[in-house]
Design a protein that fits this description.
With 319 residues, the chain is an alpha+beta fold. The chain folds into 3 domains: 3-68; 80-179 and 270-318, Alpha-Beta Plaits, CATH 3.30.70; 188-261, Double Stranded RNA Binding Domain, CATH 3.30.160.20. Helix content is 44%, strand content 23%. An 8-stranded mixed sheet has the order 2-3-1-5-4-9-10-11. A 3-stranded antiparallel sheet has the order 6-7-8, with helices on one face. A hairpin with a 5-residue loop joins strand 10 (285-288) and strand 11. Helix 1 runs antiparallel to helix 3 (51-68). The longest helix is centred in the first third of the chain and has 37 residues, at 3-39.
């Protein structure tokens, strides 16, 4: 039996049960307020103290359930693997990549998701060259898929002695974790597997043994790597999971592009374009270039408060 698939299905079952229970509770609350409003005047209700607070709580619960209806993608319920790569620019860009990784880790914590650092390559003195996060939780991919693209930072560089303004870039890639082994076939002859010593934390065992694994899928050029686990076998298994997810996602995106082409649709998803700007100087603003949603609270955003950006992307996709 596929233990990973069983665990995933069990989690989805619990999520659906909780959703049904929430619907039933909300329905009971609506009936209660309907009866209340039919028996009392607005003036009488206004004097009941906590009624308005209870109505606000119900409204928030209903809005939260409405959000669930916006997840329409094939793998929106799945966990995801999020990759961040620093752009050109040395320490400046590598520091920005690490800032983004912190932002996503904080966001995941706010959502009650679990986060595992699968692979991390330290930068040249600061930050990271690249980092890979395995993020698990309900709708992890459905939410974070909108983060795929190029993220731009404008700020006074902490690495510039002359305190000049710098622009840095980092790219974010997001793939769903797919447990269905029948979705795609990976041939052994199409793989190049390399092992190397891990560069992260882990003590003497990690640094002295070639436990890290890099897999290249020759036909597509897709490269995945994992150094988080203690053994080479565990790293290989997780790297294969990453590769499979990327291949399935690539196949699906190609099919969707072909459908869009056949229907002559003008609206396309350009994952590789710049999607968001984070400006810390000469003013404070974070702006999403796809939805035009923006906020001046840059500190909160970089601390993981990106829910509104994701909500606007969900609504934009549905429209």
């Amino acid at each position: 039996m596929n233990q990973a698939l069983a665990k995933s299905l069990g989690s989805k079952k619990r999520y659906l049960e909780d959703t049904i229970k929430e619907l039933e509770n909300n329905n009971s609350s609506v009936q209660y307020f309907e009866e209340l409003f039919s028996n009392f005047s607005n003036e009488e209700i206004a004097q009941m103290g906590d009624i308005n607070a209870e109505i606000d709580q119900l409204r928030n619960r209903v809005n939260k359930l409405y959000l669930q209806t916006l997840y329409t993608g094939k793998w929106d319920d799945n966990d995801c693997i999020l990759y961040i790569n620093a752009g050109a620019g040395g320490e400046e860009a590598q520091d920005w990549a690490e800032m983004l990784s912190r932002m996503y880790i904080r966001y995941a914590e706010r959502q009650g998701y679990s986060v595992e650092i699968v692979n991390k390559v330290a930068g040249d003195g600061a930050g990271v060259r690249n980092i890979c996060l395995n993020i698990s939780g309900n709708h992890a991919y459905g939410n974070l898929k909108f983060e795929k693209g190029v993220h731009r930072l404008v700020r006074i560089s902490p690495f510039d002695a002359n305190k000049r303004r710098h622009t840095s870039f980092a790219s974010v890639d997001v793939s769903p974790v797919i447990e269905d082994d029948n979705e795609i076939e990976i041939k052994a002859e199409d793989l190049k597997i390399d092992t190397y010593r891990s560069s992260g934390a882990g003590g003497q065992h990690v640094n002295k043994t070639e436990s890290a694994v890099r897999i290249t899928h020759i036909p597509t050029g897709i490269v995945v790597q994992c150094q988080n686990e203690r053994s080479q076998l565990q790293n290989k298994e997780f790297a294969m999971k990453m590769l499979k997810s990327k291949l399935i996602e690539k196949k699906t995106e190609e099919e969707e592009k072909e459908k869009a082409k056949q229907k002559s649709q003008d609206k396309k998803i350009e994952w590789g374009s710049q999607i968001r700007s984070y400006v810390l100087h000469p003013y404070n603003m974070v702006k999403d270039h796809r939805t035009n949603y923006q906020t001046s609270n840059t500190t909160a955003v970089l601390d993981g408060e990106i829910e509104e950006f994701i909500l606007q992307s969900l609504i934009n996709l549905r429209n």
